[in-house]
Amino acid sequence: KSNRGNLFSDCLLGYKYVVYKTSSTSTANSRSYLKKTDITAGDYIVYENTLCFPTAFVASGGDMSFDGLNYIRSLEKIYSCLNGGGSPFTELPLKITRGEDGFYTVQAECVARSDFYFAAEFPDMGLYVTLDGNGNEVPLADHYDYRFKTYAASEVIRIRDKSGKMTEEDIRAFCHAYSIEQTTTAALAGKARENRVSYTLGKNKMIPETITAEEGDCLFLSYASLDGYRVTVNGKRVEFVDCGLDLMLVPLEEGENAVSIEYVSPYFRYIGIGIAAALLLSALWYFILVKRKKILEKLSPLLSFAAYALSAFIGVAFAVFPLGVYLYKLIIYIF
């Protein structure tokens, strides 16, 4: 299970099992989609997510590119592509009050058994602040916007603009709360199971069963679409459809489809290029050293400079830069 993830994304990504401490079984038992298993380890109990999507199924849409889309609209597009249209979201009414300190308190009317999302999209997010867990003012854009944040049902959001001119009408115009109800996720999971595709795994390859598809259908697999995969449909080479989730989305033809997915490491190609380049440079060096010694004498200063430059580049690329990234992330983590 993802850390502070939501039900919809956990089910879609195939997080089938959830681990709870024995002291937290009441929380697990309150979630109707979790089924207790006989698997235990020390102080932990394993539950099965009964709404988990299969790892391979036929989806009714083919475009899951998220270019230019915010977080909420990306989720809508995922749902639409997998379900054949529509939106999973229900917009929730907001309860807004203004405090003496100038902060507005914003809270959604919560719906039971739902995933909650809060979104703020003021024209200039830099003008607005909120409070972090320690009560310190922080930029609103770092905490609540369409790009990445989910909104816990018990959480209260506080917003203030630096100019002090914001009104309740502004908040209602630019702030929204949404829910994806458990029944919505369950319905989509049921449809995915109806369109489940079985497959066999071989050495570096995956072979799904013959798939009967309609025009525009795609095969969705919750495997990362890494470089090196070669996909064929009915013997013809195809490319993965662009997917913002970086998962496999294979375009299908109308009718029956014989699909094969094979992995060949792209690094073999790079190794071959490197060997060829090394052989070429060796031949050139031999020609200069044996046949044209005068050329070598003229190139000596340049070769020395190139050697120093190459050493400096390697030092920066493989030592200084990684160390800098590590220190930067360490500082961000600490502060």
Structure described in brief:
The chain has 335 residues and is of the alpha+beta class. Helices cover 33% and strands 30% of the residues.
How many β strands by DSSP?
A: 21
Which assembly state applies to the chains in this document?
single chain
Order of helices and strands: HEHEEEHEEEEEEEHEHEEEEEEEEEHH
> What's the gyration radius in Å?
28 Å
User: Helix content range of the residues, please?
Assistant: 25-40%
Overall, the morphology is extended
Poorly predicted segments: 145-149
Q: Any overview of this molecule?
A:
It is a single chain. Helix 6 packs antiparallel against helix 7. The protein has helices at 7-12, 25-29, 71-83, 168-174, 182-194, 267-291, 293-334, and strands at 17-21, 34-41, 44-49, 56-59, 90-92, 94-98, 104-108, 114-120, 128-131, 137-139, 157-161, 175-181, 199-202, 205-208, 211-213, 218-224, 229-233, 236-238, 247-251, 255-257, 259-263. The model is unreliable at 145-149 (pLDDT under 50). The chain has a five-stranded antiparallel β-sheet, with helices on one face. It has 335 residues and is of the alpha+beta class. It is built from seven helices and 21 strands.
